[in-house]
Design brief:
single chain; alpha/beta; Rossmann fold; Hypothetical Protein, Haloacid Dehalogenase-like Hydrolase, Chain: A, domain 2; 4-stranded antiparallel β-sheet; 9 helices; 16 strands; 34% helix; globular; phosphatase activity; HAD-SF_hydro_IIB; HAD_sf
Length: 282
């Protein structure tokens, strides 16, 4: 019996700037039937709030934590709109020193997400990639300082460059065992990637929620489409890959849902709710 549904945002329920009302209705129906609903995303709290506003579901996220930054943070949103942290994972200064040095070596650009949501450490302040993310995130770019302590610790790096540069950079970073994912907002992982602290992925957030609510993996359903969803799809008792996911994501899933364009999350939630109606409770 599924008791918790967690879903990725971009490419899973969010497409071309909006969430289809059919998906919102299915999530609301699941909530009305007593299931817990949450989000697991590469986004940070500020941009997640915009998604919640669009959903307009009245979900009580002061009780049910949201998984952000690919599992680097878990938080609740209080009735007044404030964020209450459940946990955070950050890079050490030594780790960010290494990663920024590798970025400079391979001539790629870094935009970071610091704990202070008004700033970002970058290696090239005036690059168009940095300007675009700074504008979208409302973060002030600061040139990374290798000498002095950071004003705010970093939980995620977004890196961009040419395909050849990014291939070499990604290969070298992989040698240090940092989790690397395709950037949530784009499809080309060869040119845009996200890096999070060691041991961080969305499945760790799901494990935190399962422990909080005394749930087993088989009581959790997860929907996702990207590299950053892979571990969560494999951990959940019922892991769905979207029809628009890459083949290796689909192979890891228990089921393949219709694509985001076909409102696949709504289709599968409605099937799940119908099946559970017809399943006797113990």
């Amino acid at each position: 019996m599924i008791k918790l549904i967690a879903t990725d945002i971009d490419g899973t329920i969010f497409h071309r700037g909006k969430i289809n009302p059919t998906v919102i209705q299915a999530l609301k129906e699941a909530q009305d039937q007593g299931l817990k609903i949450t989000l697991a995303t590469g986004r940070n709290a500020r941009s997640i709030q915009k998604i919640l506003d669009q959903m307009g579901m009245g979900l009580n996220y002061s009780d049910i934590p949201i998984i952000g930054q690919n599992g680097a943070e878990v938080f609740t949103i209080q009735p007044n709109g404030d964020m209450k942290e459940e946990y955070n994972h950050f890079f050490t200064k030594e780790e960010t020193d290494l990663l920024f040095k590798l970025a400079n070596k391979h001539h790629v650009q870094i935009f970071s997400y610091a704990y202070n949501d008004k700033l970002s450490y970058v290696n090239k302040k005036w690059h168009p990639f940095v300007w675009a993310l700074s504008h979208n995130s409302k973060r002030k770019p600061l040139k990374y300082d290798f000498v002095h302590p950071l004003k705010s610790p970093i939980s995620k790096l977004i890196v961009s460059g040419s395909r050849r540069q990014m291939q070499k950079f990604r290969e070298e970073v992989s040698n240090y065992n940092y989790p690397i994912f395709a950037f949530s907002y784009v499809q080309d992982a060869r040119q845009n990637i996200e890096i999070v602290p060691k041991g961080v992925n969305k499945s760790e957030g799901l494990k935190f929620l399962a422990k909080k609510f005394n749930l087993q993996p088989e009581e959790v359903a997860y929907f996702g489409d990207g590299e950053n969803d892979l571990e969560a799809i494999k951990w959940a008792g019922l892991g769905f890959a979207m029809g628009n996911a890459h083949d290796h994501i689909k192979k890891a899933a228990d089921k393949v849902a219709p694509s985001v364009q076909e409102n696949g999350v709504a289709v599968e939630i409605n099937r799940l709710l119908e099946a559970q109606k017809n399943t006797p409770t113990k």
